[in-house]
Amino acid sequence: MKKSLFTRFERVNTETNNRTFLPSGLNGKALDISLDDIPSRKEVRDAIPKHCFTRQTNRSLFYLSRTVVIQIFVVLIGLSIPLTKGMIPIWILYAILSGTTSMGLWVLAHECGHGAFSDNRKLETVVGYCLHSFLLVPYFSWQRSHAVHHAFTNHITDGETHVPVVISGDGKSEKKGGENEMESSLFFGKILYGFNQLFLHLILGWPAYLLLGKTGGPRYGTSNHFWPTAPFSKKLWPSIWAKKVWISDWGIGFMLLLLILWSINFGLNSMISLYLGPLIVVNIWLVIYTWLHHTDTDVPHLGASQFSYMRGAFLSIDRPYGRIFDFLHHSIGSTHAIHHIEPTVPHYHARLATRILKNKFPKVYLYNPTPIHKSLWHIATNCVAVKKDYAIDRYVWKQPYHSQS
C-alpha cells in the first residue's frame, strides 16, 4: 500500500512539472516574498499615525459594554425558549447566535492579554482574567503561549498553534508524520478527509491544544495550559510563568464551580443550552480565525535561516469577514496582519493601520479575497503536510494525494 501510494505521488508530480502546491486566492504571492522584501518594524511604525498606538480606556470599556449588552439581549432570547426535545433545532440555532455574539468577549480578552485594552494594567488584567475565565480559558497560560505564537509566527519548529507536519521530517526539531497524513488524504478521499479535518480542528482542536498542546511547535513538547509540570512539558512555562498557570487555574476552577451550581439548581439541560452550546461555537470561531489567518496552500512556513519576527508577522493573512462579523468581533479577522506586527494597537485603530499597511507595503501585505467558507474548505482539504525546500530553508505545502489524479 505504502509503496503504491508514493509511486503514484512521484508519477503525478512529474506530470505536473513538479508543482507541489495548490494556489489560493493569494495566487502564490507569499511564495514570491523573500526576507529582503520585508520592511523593518521601524519602517512600519513610522508609516502609521502615532495615535494608532494609543489606548483609550474609556473607549475600550465602551466596546466591552456594547458587547455585553448585545450578549445580555441574546441571553434574554434564550431564556424565552422552552427546554424541550422538540426545540433542539432552535437551541442549535441559538448556540450559533449566542456563540457568535460572545466571540466579541473573547476578542476583547485577547486585547487585554496583549496590553492593547488600557494603559491601566491592573484594570486590563482584571478584565482579561475575568472574561477569559468566563470562557474557560486560562488567562495567563494563554497569554504566555499566545506571545510565543506571535514571536514565532509560521516558524516550523518554534511556532505555536497550527504548526504543520513535515514530509521526511527529522523527528527531533520538525514534526514528523507528513507521509502518513498524505496517505490518509488519499485513503479517505477529498470529501471525507476534508470533513474529518474540519471536525478535528473546529470541534476538538481548541480543547486538544489547551490540554495536550496539539498543533503547537515541536520545540515545546506535550504542554498543558492547566498543569505546567510533569508529566507534561515545562518548556512553554519558563521562570514565573509556571506560577501564573496555577493562578489561571483559580479562575477556571471558580467558573466550573458556578457551572456545577447552575446545573444543580436549574438543571443540566439549562446549562448546556445557554452556556456550553454557545461556548463550543466560540471555540469554533477561535479556531477559524487562527487557522485561516496563518494557513493557506501557498503560504510557507520558515526555517531558522529564513525567519524573522517581521517576516513571520507578514505571513498573516487578512480575510473578508464582512461588516456584521467585523462589528461583533471587533475586526479581528480583517486586521490580522497589523495585529501581528504591532499587537498593542487597539482594534479601533487597526482598520486605519491596515489601510496604510496595504497601501505602503503592497508587495508583502497578504489579503485573500476568497469567501471564508470556501477558504475553510480549501485549507481543510489541501493543507495536509509540508516539505522542506532546502535551497531556501522554507517549508511548502505539498499537493495532497487525493488531488493528484
From TrEMBL:
InterPro entries: FA_desaturase_dom (IPR005804), Fatty_acid_desaturase (IPR012171). The chain crosses the membrane at residues 61-82, 88-109, 121-142, 191-212, 245-266, 272-292. Its cofactor is Fe(2+). The keyword Endoplasmic reticulum does not apply. It is an enzyme of class 1 (oxidoreductase). Pfam families: FA_desaturase. GO terms for molecular function: oxidoreductase activity. Residues 91-366 form the Fatty acid desaturase domain. GO terms for biological process: lipid metabolic process. Its EC number is 1.14.99.33. It comes from the Bacteria. Keywords: Iron, Membrane, Oxidoreductase, Transmembrane, Transmembrane helix. Belongs to the fatty acid desaturase type 2 family. This is Delta(12)-fatty acid dehydrogenase. It comes from Prochlorococcus marinus (strain NATL2A).
